[in-house]
Write a structure and sequence with these properties.
Layout: H1 22-42, E1 54-60, H2 67-85, E2 93-100, H3 106-112, E3 120-125, E4 138-144, H4 177-201, E5 202-214, H5 227-242, H6 248-252, H7 263-271, E6 276-285, H8 288-291, H9 296-311, H10 316-327, E7 343-351
Parallel strand pairs: 1-2, 1-4, 2-3, 4-5
Antiparallel strand pairs: 5-7, 6-7
Helix pairs in contact: 1-2, 5-10, 9-10
Length: 354
């Protein structure tokens, strides 16, 4: 079955992703020190003169920037430092491949590329759930807040005869356990495809860094997820369904294709095939700033396209007008004592030689 595409909102308008991705930016800043340290500790550099003078980097699911440019600069600085520690004074050439869905706004990406950058850049359209690059061609892969996106909605969610049927909800938060299990099963399939593809593309000893929103180990998907952040959107859609502005069938068949794994769940999926070893898998609670509800512009940047694709463009403006009213004065979601609403996962993987 063909994979679905969920690009972020491009262009230069008020709702574009480039200007409404501050949460992702904050996450990248929080992970910067860990990323630098992990690269210096784990990157394999030959003692003698390297056989290749070009270091190949891929950023998967970057949208239109500009957060990717900050991450790329961090990676390049850390790699350069590691080479200098090994006594290599000559500078490497860096080739950076920026990849996202074919419907991504690559024109805005290229316009946003920093002047004076210390690397060569290319755009690579395609899904990271499949192959994107030649075999053993990448030295480093980076993906921030993209691997939580599923390749498609679990099919059971649309089947009224399935125990995972999810009418009246747009996510698995607060849903029956069968809904969370369907999401988890789809995520497992997608991660296997993702890791299999990267295993063919990354050189032996090469590294891959992932930033992923997750949930604590002891929590089921329905108990702790990004669900509270999506509640105003779900409520606005339900109001429009009850008022027959959108059809009930359309409402009941709409689910967000996002899943937040636990650390143990992710560890199991990575270790299943043994293609990569886990150099680091760290979790951290989100800051108070990150727990704030997304603004209307941030929601439109991330979800306008998927909503318009399912319900039609004609309902988008009214939907987000309602969303904005529900958003006003609404308290930010907060975890109960000793309970994390959602956690951030930093993962560094090394490609095994076999």
């Amino acid at each position: 079955m063909e994979e679905e595409s969920f690009p972020m909102t491009g262009g230069h308008g008020a709702n574009n992703y480039a200007n409404n991705s501050n949460r992702q930016k904050e996450g990248a800043y929080r992970a910067q020190a860990a990323l630098i340290e992990a690269i210096i500790e784990n990157l394999e550099v030959e003692e003698e003169t390297p056989t290749s003078t070009t270091f190949q980097i891929a950023d998967l699911g970057y949208s239109t920037g500009p957060n990717t440019f900050f991450a790329v600069n961090t990676i390049i600085e850390a790699v350069t430092h590691k080479f200098k520690l090994k006594g290599h004074s000559s500078l490497l050439d860096f080739q950076v491949h920026l990849s996202d869905h074919v419907l991504n706004d690559f024109n805005t990406l290229f316009k946003n590329l920093p002047s004076g950058r210390q690397y060569f850049a290319s755009g690579v359209p395609g899904s990271f759930h499949g192959r994107l690059f030649p075999k053993a061609s990448l030295d480093f892969v980076y993906s921030a807040y993209a691997v939580q996106w599923l390749s498609r909605i679990p099919q059971q969610l649309d089947d009224p005869n399935s125990p995972a049927y999810n009418p009246g909800r747009i996510y698995y938060s607060g849903a029956p356990d069968e809904v969370g299990k369907a999401y988890a099963a789809q995520y497992a399939k997608d991660m296997e495809c993702f890791l299999q593809a990267r295993a063919q593309e990354v050189v032996p000893g090469g590294l891959m860094a992932l930033l992923i929103p997750g949930r604590p180990d002891e929590k089921l998907p329905s108990e702790s997820s990004l669900g509270p952040l999506f509640q105003p959107l779900e409520s606005s859609l339900l109001d429009m369904s009850n008022e027959e502005i959108i059809g009930k069938d359309k409402m009941d068949s709409f689910n967000l294709p996002i899943y937040s794994p636990s650390p143990d769940e992710l560890r199991t999926l990575i270790n299943k095939k043994g293609r990569f070893s886990i150099a680091r898998l760290e979790s951290s609670e989100l800051t108070e700033k990150s727990r704030k509800l997304p603004t209307t512009h941030e929601f439109r940047a991330g979800f306008q396209n998927i909503i318009a694709k399912h319900f039609g463009n004609e309902i988008v403006e009214q939907l987000f007008q309602r969303f904005a009213k529900k958003f006003e004065g609404r308290p930010d979601p907060a975890p109960a004592p000793n309970e994390a609403l959602v956690i951030g996962l930093f993962v560094l993987l090394k490609r095994n030689a076999f």
